[in-house]
Design brief:
Keywords: Oxidoreductase. The chain is an alpha/beta fold.
């Protein structure tokens, strides 16, 4: 990780969970980290905690990835303050309890906007800024899911994650075609000990039930995978990592 000391990284969905864990690891690795999320209070609290544990620094930035104008404004902020970007971690995602046959169009659009379009926009703008500032060894890391490799319970969420698999592969091909050494990786976790399901099903205790039935992954398991990817030799492009709890079947 020594070559990333002092370099600039963007992490979406950095206020809690996996995103906050990744931000903490990168700050500990002496990177400058722009962490974005919608909830600025949570983001500031996370940044305050993280900035006390590492030699790098996290810069909180409020951004709703559902709005392209806000995403573009964030990249303008990065351009003006840091002049460059070396790493983009597309971590943010949303999930609704919706279906193909009975789902609401606005919920589909929300998931497509955040889980697919925002990843495309952030990837495009990241590479644009990297190339403007002559960064030829940057890295785009997309947080996918095992739901991007098989459809089980949440088909609409799976659709957005299958799209992410296609984006990651297409990005790799286009980056090589553009004769850059910027790399792309997707990391696909199984069940992680976060409370995402409780946001989808409030008051039903689904997360506690899951955690009692299985030893799930910890957020640091995913952030350590990010460090592994970034720490790989520049000649190595780790394209795809799937991480499941030992006890998870699907």
């Amino acid at each position: 990780m020594e070559r990333w000391v002092g370099k600039v990284a963007l992490i979406t969905g950095a206020s809690e969970g996996i995103g906050a864990s990744i931000a903490e690891k990168l700050v500990q690795s002496e990177m400058k980290v722009i962490g974005c999320a919608r909830n600025i209070d949570k983001l500031n609290k996370t940044a305050s905690k993280i900035n006390n544990v590492g030699p790098g620094e996290m810069y909180p930035y409020q951004c709703d990835l559902n709005e392209e104008s806000q995403v573009l404004g964030m990249f303008q902020f990065i351009r003006e303050k840091f002049k460059t970007l070396h790493v983009c971690v597309n971590n943010a995602a949303v999930i609704h309890d919706t279906s193909i046959l009975e789902g609401k169009t606005e919920e589909w659009k929300h998931m497509l906007n955040v889980n697919v379009l925002a990843v495309l926009i952030c990837s495009r703008e990241s590479v644009k800024l990297m190339r403007e500032s002559e960064v030829d060894d940057g890295h785009i890391i997309n947080l996918n899911s095992v739901a991007g490799h098989r459809i089980v319970h949440k088909p609409l969420y799976g659709i957005t994650k299958f799209a992410l698999s296609a984006i990651n592969q297409g990005l790799r091909v286009e980056l090589i075609g553009a004769k850059t050494h910027i790399r792309s990786t997707q990391i696909s976790p199984g069940f992680v000990e976060t409370y995402l399901l409780d946001k989808v099903y409030p008051g039903q205790g689904k997360c506690d039930k899951l955690f009692s039935e299985m030893e799930c992954l910890k957020t640091e398991d995913i952030s350590e995978a990010v460090l592994y990817v970034l720490g790989s030799h520049p000649r190595v492009n780790v394209n795809d990592i799937i991480i499941r709890p030992t006890e998870q079947l699907e």
